[in-house]
## 1
Amino acid sequence: MGRILSGIQPTGAPHLGNYLGALRQWAAMQDEDDCFYAIVDLHALINVPDPDELRTATRNVAMVVLAAGVDPDRCTLFLQSHVPAHTEMGWVMECGVSFGELSRMTQFKAKAEAREFVSAGLFTYPALQAADILLYQADRVPVGDDQRQHLELARDAAVRFNSRYGPLLTVPQATLPKAGARVMDLQDPTSKMSKSAISPQGTIDLLDSPDELARKVKRAVTDTEGVVRYDPAAKPGVSNLLDLLSAATGEAPEALADRYAQYGPLKADVAEALNELLRPFRKRLAELQGEPSAVTAALALGRQKAAAVADATLERVRDAIGLLPR
Ligand code: AMP
Ligand code: TRP
């Protein structure tokens, strides 16, 4: 049985990329492994969200995670800010990674370019992420492809810590899904699907109705060649649709491509397969929307279980680095 940790930010509405890249794996892992899943509300502060929007987004993301099949009795689901050890360990990690390492993070560079106010938190964010992971001594971290570089940094931080202070921290590994690790925007298929997309038509929100989903897939950007072929570089739009169908059916995208002569029928099947895939999710979500206290209770339980593990690691870290006992 391995130890798993992963996180999702409560910013805006979770989308299909979150589901296929992360949440689906989260639910699948909880029977085999000892899983810790964090809603990383401290990370969301780097965007300086409106307080009411942050509160709403945090509750919504918790509900979506539960609806995706994450079961608070079989794993630990918690809010990052409820376990103060994260902030403390975050500082230790900030002092253990270099300015140069953080400067090389491609996500930082992309996000810093796109905004006027670049918070120091946006820059040090991967150190806090390393803290999230290392506090739980996680062996594996299920994430989408965009988190690969942050995971490398967390590994480097653990290796460096251990060589300075002795073998205390588990060196984690990223686990990427076979299909769905990088879901692309339906309107701009060379960019990943994200909560901050320019056109809302490009992002399939997990709260979209089946009809809205079908409409967005139908309008997805393809190309004028008119041939169904899996070629992500030359045909990003069509290849993304094939990747989605592959993620939903488990078949290879190349094999799926052979079955279609035209874009229309491909899109119809993608929409149908995704709606089928999301059917149990939507059913659970509707149930949870009627009982918000279930979400509060799950987070209260998770907070206790998470704090027990994180505090124990933090005590050992504090001692190892030379802080006096409190
Ligand atoms: P975030 O919404 O940035 O907090 O991401 C939460 C999880 O979803 C992380 O594991 C990401 O790697 C994953 N993820 C985000 N966007 C995508 C995408 N377009 N395709 C696949 N996985 C994604
Ligand atoms: N940086 C991740 C993202 O944007 C979220 C995250 C924070 C995370 N801490 C984590 C993911 C720890 C995995 C493990 O998606």
## 2
Amino acid sequence: MNKKQLSELLNSLTLKQKIGQLFQSPGVAYNDDATATGVTYLPWLNSDTVENAGSTLNIFDNKKLRQIQKNHLKKNPVPLLFMADIINGYRLVFPSSIAQGCSFNPDLAQKAAKITAYEASKCGVSVTFSPMIDVARDARWGRISEGYGETALLNKDFGVANVKGYQGDDLSSDDTIAACVKHFAAYGATYDGRDYNEAQISQNTLKSVYLPPFEACIKAGARLIMPSFNTINGIPCTANKKLLKDTLRDKWKFDGVVISDYGAIKETADIGGAKDYAETAKMSLECGVDIDMVSESYYFNLEKLVENGEVDEKLIDQAVMRVLMLKNDLGILDDPYKYIKEEFDNFDFSSEQHEDFAKDFVCQSSVLLKNEGELPLNKKDDIAFIGPFSVINELMTNWSRVTPHRDKGISIEQALAQKFGKNKFSCIKGSKFAQPEIRSVKLEKFENASPSQEELIKQAVSKAKESKKVVLFLGEHKDLFGEATSRSDISLPKPQKELFDAVYEVNKNITVVLFAGRPLEIKDISQKSKALLYVWFPGTYGAEAIVDMLFGDAVPSGKLDMTLPQCIGQVPIFCEKPVPSHYSASIEGGIKHAYSCRWIDVTNYPLYPFGYGLSYTEFEYSDIKISADTMTRDEKITVSVDVTNKGGVDAYETVQMYIRDVVTPYLSTPLKTLKAYKKVFIKQGETAKVCFEINEEMLKYYNIDNEYISENGEFKVFVGANSAEDNFVKFTLK
Ligand code: GLC
């Protein structure tokens, strides 16, 4: 349809039908096997809300979707839009986002998003609530696994890559879907790491850390955005005029669709942010929230508000037009069955090329933190494979449960048999996943079966005793992180620590493969094991890729996108920390005298710094150079470094560049900010010259008056293998 036809369609709708376009009903209103992803307000769903709804979410069955659409169109001139949480993959599930960020390779994320759109668009999905680009620095937060780590730059680069991958160049194509970036904004900045809470942050921090990834995704063409559940300094994001109107609509010129999070508009009234659902509906609509996801606020109140003159119908028309434009660009106004064609019902998604790509993505996202000659393993050795993660499949986050068509993949045990034959290696569970008091109901059922924890440990110890080496597959079960799953204790669950200690008693040649949704407290394990591979949640092909890495048929090349703390007491700890205010002695964190910025019971340094990761080869950095030692605002300078592969295998290395403004009146300016990175493949024995360009934009920050400026003076440029390294060059901005 063209603009004129869209206006005619809009004007043909009754007020109730228009308001219906601004309501998203839960999938369970149409279909019992839809996946519920929040509290569902069922009582009123039998009224005409369902008939007039403009969209719904998380229903996956083409035949049922065709019937739902057919029934809908009997009563409503505008087709239903089917949205879904397709997170990190549809059938083929890729590594979790926090793992993907460790690849420092957004091109891989773009390709993964493209494959995801290709698959999801054959199963009714036209909009995905992805990418999530919440900068997160608090390991207690359950949703830290969904974003791309602690820096604005990685969340920005991976967010843009996902938007391009999902949407491609043509939203009307059969293989693309619309991206909904979330959660806007600072959801990961809640002051105590708990979900649905307050983020107390300065305007400077909001603008320099949490907003840039969203601005970049909007500029990249994301068609939807979802405000977050949290408040920013007391103002709910779903009714935050500064955020949604002044910044998003007026400053960034966003004319896409704003869809609330699940029930969030209603929740504003429930928590006392508005006197009733009519007021919260008015507040959010006036802030530019177009679609009310699941709560009954818009549907049951806007008509009355218009009739008694409290809401201008023009506001509703603007919101409805944005929804109609989205549906039009997706092609469903011309063909309501575009994403649910009968020919898609038995679509063959299999693709060896996609599967090989997924395995490579796992290897590029896995972080080798320690290796004292233990890896790669030799298949001739007598090796015990032990741990709860060695005997289960579905090594993916809980978000994958939303898509019933996901390929759960195989277990480590099955991958070993696939690679070496059935009788070569066996796996034993060795321990329960978690102690009863933190198990979810689902996990409880799974864990209650025999054998007991004692029996499991006994089996593990006897196997470890008779083996030359042990590989332990440990970590945080997927039910222990995610939405509404923050933890005050980020250590390895007790039963698994018990397993580690028992095995360590009888065998010191331990490699640990760690599965986690967040940075865990692993100091003791890290000190006692000889090798440590952090794989996060690797997805459908995780097991095969991990076994290939363990035996050297693939090389891990991930680097941490999150700082790993010594202990929970250091959290939040991150590389882009502000300068300590006084008596900092050495601002990098070293202590020269008692009066220093420090804890008396733990070092200032993390266990592993942001950007850290080893390889099966060694890289040597040399000859760091800068093209000029002064720079004016309209000039650019270049920093270069030589990186030599000194080891015996060809491998990737991620070279990182951080900048420090050495003297600044605004001490919130971070000590080191990641400004650029390059992942280069270097053959053994060869040297690569890696160059970075520095421009004025990289030197800017928000000053005390919230002006975005750069100031004259000295800057240090750190170039190296991670954020803790100290090789730098200097220049002066004049
Ligand atoms: C959830 C999540 C959001 C998700 C939405 C729809 O509460 O916060 O990330 O996209 O509801 O399932």
